[in-house]
Amino acid sequence: MVMSLTMIEDIKGAVREAGQLALLYSGKVHKGLKADQSVVTEADNAVESFLRLSLTRLAPTYGYLGEETEETKPPGDGETRYWVVDALDGSRAFAAGIPLWTPAVCLMDGNNAVAGAAFNPITGELFWADAEGPAWCGDRPLRPDYSVELKPNTFILGPTNHHRSFEIDFPGRVYCLGAPIYQLCLLAKGAVKAFFFDPVINLWDLALPSLLLERVGGVLVYGSGRPVELGELRGRRPVPEPVFAGGAEMVAALRERLHFIG
Questions:
Q1: Mean pLDDT across the chain, nearest whole number?
Q2: Residue 221 and residue 254: Cα distance in Å, rounded?
Q3: pLDDT tens track for 230-244
Q4: What single DSSP character describes residue 73?
Q5: What is d(CA 221, CA 70) in angstroms, rounded to the nearest whole number?
Q6: Is the dihedral angle over the CA atoms 215, 88, 102, 49 positive or is it negative?
Q7: FRET pair for 194, CA 20 to 30 Å: which of 105, 172, 178, 215?
Q8: Are 105 and 85 in contact (CB under 8 A)?
Q9: What is the pTM of this model?
């Protein structure tokens, strides 16, 4: 894929501005519930509108799929690229004043993630990847250690309801930070050894993280071991199985130890 040399800078700039826009709403929002019982706030809608306008202006022929936008805009004639946007991953945390949220943008070409960025304006972490090269956090390339580790102080990340939805035989510590994109970014950074989640996440939760993990040598698979194929999720359906991510051997070990019970 050929990209403008400045496009990744435009994407990074857009998510930075989106994060700053969300901060203007911090502590001032009223949370509502969507049909799936997930939380939505005024900030979600404002940031989504900003990103849709900014990205459409950047590339008018590209398609657009956003979590808060009901209608998906298909790519223009002869075009295969489209944006996948989660305007505010971690809305529950945002509404509660917990700094575990991020706006995220991923550029897709057909079924493949090719570039994107996510920004946590509280910590200042900017996770991104261009069409080529490594994954980055700010100006530092990501080089996680994905060796297998099953020790009392081994950290993995999971859903906040893991105590109800999984049977877990793991000697280490399960941390729950809510927002799947930010958790997967931390995994790509090497802060934890692995990630698992129940089957409630969507394309916008996985598009950018799949790119970051690919660039650092990680895997993103279902509980059955089948690789996650982003193209299967374009219809806005959630994933069909629990999702595991990390180094291939660590993920294989966890799939034997963590069992989804619904």
A1: 93
A2: 12
A3: 999 998 999 999 999
A4: B
A5: 27
A6: positive
A7: 105
A8: yes
A9: 0.94
- Within 90-131, residue ranges assigned H as helices are 91-96
β pairing state of 125-129 and 173-175: unpaired
Taking alpha carbons only, the member of 185, 191, 222, 223 closest to residue 205 is: 185
Question: Distance between CA atoms of 240 and 238, rounded to whole angstroms?
Answer: 6
> For 87-134, what is each residue's pLDDT tens digit?
999 988 888 889 999 999 999 999 999 999 999 999 999 999 999 999
- Rounded to the nearest 5 degrees, what angle is found at the Cα of 206, between the Cα atoms of 204 and 208? 85
Look at residues 148, 150, 187 and name the one whose alpha carbon lies nearest to residue 170: 150
Q: What backbone torsions phi and psi does residue 59 show, to the nearest 5 degrees? A: -145, 85
Structure letter (DSSP) for residue 159: -
**Which of 189, 234, 184 is closest to 210 using CA atoms?**
184
> Could you give the CA distance from residue 47 to residue 118 in angstroms, rounded to a whole number?
13
End-to-end C-alpha distance for the chain, whole angstroms: 40
Whether the CB-CB separation of 179 and 102 falls below 8 Å is answered with yes
82 within 8 A of 74, measured Cβ to Cβ? yes
Q: Which residues of the chain have pLDDT under 70?
A: 1-5, 29-39
